[in-house]
Amino acid sequence: MPHDQDVEGANDPDSASTYECLQCGTVVKATTNPGTCECGGEFHNRAKSLE
Hints:
3 strands, globular, about 50 residues, mainly beta, three-stranded antiparallel sheet, about 0% helix
């Protein structure tokens, strides 16, 4: 993306991230890891690799 089109606050550490439950696939947006899903699975930040 060209520098003149940067979105202000897009990489703000306080902005919400997308988390996905690795067990059932539920997707939520939160500023911190929501922990455990209702199904008992763990949430993982979708922006991070699973490696």
